[in-house]
Known about the structure:
There is one protein chain. The chain has six helices and four strands. It is α+β, with helices and mostly antiparallel strands. The protein has a single domain, classed as H-NOX domain.
Amino acid sequence: MYKTKMPHYSKMSPAARALPADSLLANRAMAYRVFIEGAREILGAEKLAFFTADFRPNGRQAPAAAAALLSHLEETYGAVGGGGLTQRIGRAMFRYGLKDIGEQVGFRDMGFRILPSPRRVENALRILACFLTDIIGEPVQIFDQGTAWTVQMACCPPPGSPAASHLYGNLATGLIQELTSWAGGGRYFSVAETACRAAGATACVFQVDKKPLD
């Protein structure tokens, strides 16, 4: 569906990526389209159209358009309700992204698919880190903490930013939940945001337990 050519991420390091501005904008526009598809599934077409009536974003406008939609959700449903919906949108985003660019980023490779489950989950997180680096424009890092992985990224805008919203953390939580469940063969892995840039932390940090709950 999407015409943006995605790099193969399975052997790449997020810290090594340095995209030109036009590629960054194209990736952000693609990510926004996936975001809108996920939002349409969760909210319904009519409600989504109401929330996004003022936006026809290109890559440069995509972050502001996404922030506006998240703000509408929080204003309409409150912090808890809006956060829950946003997390569900994040889970739906992964499913649409997998369908559209899964092969291009390496998720369909036989070498990835035959990995033992724990290594497949970790590799999936590292591929996601490279992909998100190309969207955010800053390195997304994965750390092995023994019983858990941590994902560190500049997910939320800093405090005082016009686009500041903790709901970006809910979106990322849902995305990581669906990714790890898919890579782990349908099992559920606990994902929790332990630090948030919108609340004053230097970065958003997500803890992903290595042991599935089921």
